[in-house]
Design brief:
There is one protein chain. With 294 residues, this protein is mainly alpha-helical. The chain is flat. The chain has twelve helices and no strands. Helix 4 packs across helix 8, helix 8 runs antiparallel to helix 10 and helix 10 runs parallel beside helix 11. The two termini are 20 Å apart. It has one domain: MetI-like (MetI-like fold, Orthogonal Bundle).
Length: 294
C-alpha cells in the first residue's frame, strides 16, 4: 500500500518531534552543531567581538607572542591574530556555504532529472557531466586569476561549479533506486504528474543524501579555499583568510609559531565540525531508522 501524498498534520508533528529527539541523542550531531554554531556566531559578530580591526597594524607589537593585549599574539605587521581569525571565519564560512549551495542545487537538478526520466534525458545529462569533468577546472581558475585577478565571488563560482558532477551522479544513483519502489509506481498508477512525483515522493527520499553530501562538501571547500589562499590564488590580501594567515607565518614558524598555528587549528576544527555533523545526520536521516520498531 502506498503512503499518502500528504501526511496528516498530527502525523507530521509527531515525525518532527521524533526527528528532533533522534538529533539530540546523536552526539556527533550535537557536537558538530555546537562547534558550527560557535564558529558562525564568532564570524557574524566579528565586527563587535574582535578587539581590533583585522587590518590595523601596530608595528611596535610586531611578532608579539600571546599576551593580555593580544590573546593569540600578533603577526609580522603587528596585526592582532585573534581579530584576523574571527574575520577570516567570515570569508571561509561564506565561501564554503555559498559554493556548496551552488554545487548541491545544480547537482540535485541534474541527478533528479537524469535518474527519474532515464532514456535519452539520462544520456544527455550524463554526457554533459562527462564533458564538464573533462575541463581542468583548477587550471582554468589559475589562468583566470592570473589574467583578471582574484575575488571572493570568482572563487565561489569556481568552487561551486567544480563538484556538481559528483553530486549529480550521487543523486542519480539514489533516484534510480527510488524510482523503482512501490510508492512511486503507485503514484504513477493513480495519475500523479512527473513534477508531483519528483517533488513529493522522490526528492524527500534523497534529502538525506544531499544533506550529508553538502556538509562534507562545505568542509572540502573550506580546505580548498585555505589551500588556494596559502598559494596566493584565493581571496586577495589584505582580506583576512585562514589560508593567507598560515602563509604569512610560514617563514617565521620557529620564532612566531602562533601566526600559523591558530588559523591552522581553526581550519581543522571547522572541517571536523562539518564532518561530525554530516556523519551524524546520515545516521539520523537514514530512512531505515525511521521504520516502526527501530
Amino acid at each position: 500500500m502506498s503512503q499518502p501524498a500528504v501526511a496528516p498534520p498530527a502525523r507530521r508533528r509527531t515525525e518532527r518531534v521524533r526527528l528532533r529527539a533522534r538529533l539530540m541523542r546523536n552526539r556527533r550531531v550535537v557536537v558538530g552543531l555546537a562547534l558550527i554554531a560557535g564558529l558562525h556566531v564568532a564570524a557574524l559578530f566579528a565586527p563587535w567581538f574582535a578587539p581590533y580591526h583585522p587590518d590595523t597594524q601596530l608595528l611596535v607589537d610586531r611578532l608579539k607572542p600571546p599576551s593580555r593585549q593580544h590573546l593569540l599574539g600578533a603577526d609580522h605587521l603587528g596585526r592582532d591574530i585573534l581579530s584576523r581569525v574571527m574575520w577570516g571565519a567570515r570569508v571561509s564560512l561564506a565561501v564554503g556555504m555559498v559554493a556548496t549551495t551552488l554545487t548541491v542545487v545544480i547537482g540535485a537538478v541534474f541527478g533528479l532529472l537524469s535518474g527519474y526520466f532515464g532514456a535519452w534525458v539520462d544520456g544527455l545529462l550524463m554526457r554533459a557531466t562527462d564533458i564538464f569533468l573533462a575541463f581542468p577546472v583548477f587550471i582554468l581558475l589559475i589562468t583566470v586569476v592570473a589574467i583578471y585577478g582574484s575575488s571572493v565571488w570568482l572563487l565561489i563560482v569556481f568552487l561551486g561549479l567544480a563538484a556538481w558532477p559528483s553530486t549529480a551522479r550521487l543523486v542519480r544513483a539514489e533516484v534510480l533506486s527510488i524510482a523503482a519502489r512501490e510508492f512511486v509506481l503507485a503514484a504513477r498508477a493513480v495519475g500523479a504528474s512527473n513534477t508531483r512525483i519528483l517533488l513529493a515522493h522522490v526528492l524527500p527520499n534523497v534529502v538525506s543524501v544531499l544533506v550529508v553530501a553538502a556538509t562534507l562538501r562545505v568542509a572540502i571547500v573550506i580546505l580548498i579555499e585555505a589551500g588556494l589562499s596559502y598559494f596566493g590564488l584565493g581571496v586577495p590580501p589584505p582580506t583576512a583568510t585562514w589560508g593567507g594567515m598560515v602563509a604569512d607565518g610560514r617563514l617565521v614558524m620557529d620564532t612566531a609559531w602562533w601566526i600559523t598555528t591558530f588559523p591552522g587549528v581553526m581550519v581543522v576544527v571547522t572541517v571536523l565540525a562539518y564532518n561530525l555533523l554530516g556523519d551524524g545526520l546520515r545516521d539520523v536521516l537514514d530512512p531505515r531508522r525511521s521504520l516502526p520498531g527501530q
